[in-house]
UniProtKB/TrEMBL annotation:
The lineage of its organism: Eukaryota, Fungi, Dikarya, Basidiomycota, Agaricomycotina. Pfam families: Peptidase_M3. This is Peptidase M3A/M3B catalytic domain-containing protein. Keywords: Hydrolase, Metal-binding, Metalloprotease, Protease, Zinc. InterPro entries: MetalloPept_cat_dom_sf, Neurolysin/TOP_dom2, Pept_M3A_M3B, Pept_M3A_M3B_dom. It comes from Phanerochaete carnosa (strain HHB-10118-sp) (White-rot fungus).
């Protein structure tokens, strides 16, 4: 709706896998903001109660599981998978036994039915990657005043209108005034890793 690209099918909503989830993940931060929730009226003149009181109590466990799946995805697409004796279930069991919170259940192989591990082509980590970027954008630009129109326009003009028509590293680096990320190299990846993922429960204004 706000795109300004000439060819939508090759540049509009078609963007890098590790960038495509950024807008929706950022919106999750807005949906947990008391300032934003106070705009909604669902019971006559009563404002919507601030905060999501039905959030997942196992949010941290879910994040840990996402990290394990990202690690498993990388293993399945590593040179180790070329070995004749490579066993995807054994690799899963070893990862969960050494780094997991919940032990692997012998005799199961659920990974064979989890399409993301082969359909994403070693980019399943990208969801966590986008969560780190979205958290950074929220903290630096929106957390203190999520209803600021000028900031919203800046986000639209720097990120949303280009879609896949511009290098996402350049867009994020410009928006966050982080020149160290604009080249998209190993240092840029490491920098995003240092940003980490901020859970919604620790956002300003939450109780």
């Amino acid at each position: 709706m706000v795109g300004r690209t000439e060819y939508q099918n090759v540049s509009g909503t078609r963007c890098a896998t590790d960038f495509v989830e950024l807008p929706s993940i950022l919106m999750e931060h807005f949906l947990n903001s008391p300032a934003v929730l106070s705009l909604f009226d669902i019971k006559g003149n009563e404002p919507l109660v601030a905060g999501n009181h039905h959030e997942d109590p196992c949010h941290s466990i879910d994040t840990h599981t996402q990290i394990l799946l990202a690690a498993l995805d990388q293993i399945y697409h590593s040179p180790a998978a070329l070995s004749p004796d490579f066993n995807s279930t054994a690799a899963l069991a070893k990862l969960y036994e050494t780094r997991g919170l919940i032990p692997y259940v012998p005799g199961t192989s659920w990974q064979t039915q989890f399409g993301h591990l082969f359909g994403y082509g070693a980019t399943y980590y990208s969801y966590l990657f986008d969560r780190a970027i979205a958290s950074r954008i929220w903290r630096k630009l929106f957390a203190h005043d999520p209803l600021n129109r000028e900031t919203g326009e800046r986000y639209k003009n720097e990120i949303l209108k280009y879609g896949g028509g511009k290098d996402p590293w350049e867009m994020v680096g410009t928006l966050l005034d982080a020149p160290e990320t604009r080249h998209g190299d190993a240092e840029a990846m490491a920098e995003v890793g240092r940003w980490k993922v901020e859970d919604e429960v620790s956002m300003p204004g939450r109780h």
